[in-house]
Amino acid sequence: AQTVTQSQPEMSVQEAETVTLSCTYDTSESDYYLFWYKQPPSRQMILVIRQEAYKQQNATENRFSVNFQKAAKSFSLKISDSQLGDAAMYFCAYRRRRDDKIIFGKGTRLHILP
Amino acid sequence: NAGVTQTPKFQVLKTGQSMTLQCAQDMNHEYMSWYRQDPGMGLRLIHYSVGAGITDQGEVPNGYNVSRSTTEDFPLRLLSAAPSQTSVYFCASSPPTGRAAEQYFGPGTRLTVT
Fold first, then answer.
1. Which residue from B minimizes the CA distance to A6?
2. A20 DSSP β-pair partners
3. Bridge partners (DSSP) listed for residue A38
4. Contact A44 B48 (CB under 8 A)
C-alpha cells in the first residue's frame, strides 16, 4: 500500500529565512504525481506546488521549490524568504495515475517567527 | 462556478444516529473523494470515485457508505454514528491525472458525535 510520511510534526523559522519540509513516500508504481498543499487556520486547502514523477526537473513556484529524488522516494518543499502568511499546516500528497487514488501525509505545522 | 460545496457546515449527532453529508461540484470533474481530518492524523481517505457509478474504498472506509449516481454529487453516509467519527470531513474533486490535476476542496463539515 502507498504511504506518505512527513517526519516533522512542527517546525519554526525566522521571517525572511529559508525552511525545508520533508516528505517521503512508498510506492511500487512508476507513474504518479506529488503535491504540497497548504492549510491555513481557515481550513481551506490551497495547492502550493506539484511535481510529475516522469519529470526530472524540480518544480518551482515563486518562493516555493521542491527537491524531488525519485530513487529515494523523497519530495521535500523549500520555502525561501519566509513570510508571516506562510504560517500554516503543510501536507504532502501522492496521486497514482493508475486509478487516481490520492493519499496525504500527516502534515507539518509551520510557525513563522517575526 | 460554485466549485465544491458541502452541506451542512456543522452537525451534532447522537451515537447510533445516521446521516448523509452532501457534496456537489459544478466543474464536471470525474474524480471525487472524501477525507476526514483529525489532529495529528492528517487527511485520511475514506472513499473515492473515478466517475459516475464507480466507487472504491480508501484508507478508513469502515462505518461509511458512498454512491455516485451523477458526475456532480458524491454523498457520504454514516450508517450508525460513533464518537470515533467525530472529525472534520472534506470532499474534493479533480479532473483525471492526465493533467497532473490538483484537487479542489470543499470548505469542510465539522461533525461531532456525542
1. B42
2. A78
3. A46, A90
4. no
Give yes or no for A109 touching B (CB within 8 A).
Answer: no
Q: Which of B60, B69, B71, B72 is nearest to B34 (CA)?
A: B60
Reading the block at residue A29, the C-alpha cell is 508504481
The answer for residues whose C-beta is within 8 angstroms of residue B57's C-beta and 6 or more apart is: B47
Angstrom distance (rounded) from CA A101 to CA A96: 6
Query: What is the rounded distance in angstroms from the CA atom of residue A51 to the CA atom of residue A34?
Result: 5
Identify residue B60 by its one-letter amino acid code.
Answer: V
Cell numbers placing A82: 519566509
Radius of gyration of chain A (CA): 14
Beta-sheet pairing, B54-57 with B42-51:
antiparallel
Q: What is the pLDDT along chain A (114 residues), one digit of tens a residue?
A: 779 999 999 999 999 999 999 999 999 988 899 999 999 999 999 999 999 998 889 999 999 999 999 999 999 999 999 999 999 999 999 998 887 888 999 999 999 999
Cα–Cα distance, B39 to B50 (Å, whole number): 28
Count CB neighbours of A96 within 10 A. 19
- The closest of B79, B87, B77, B82 to B23, measured between CA atoms, is B77
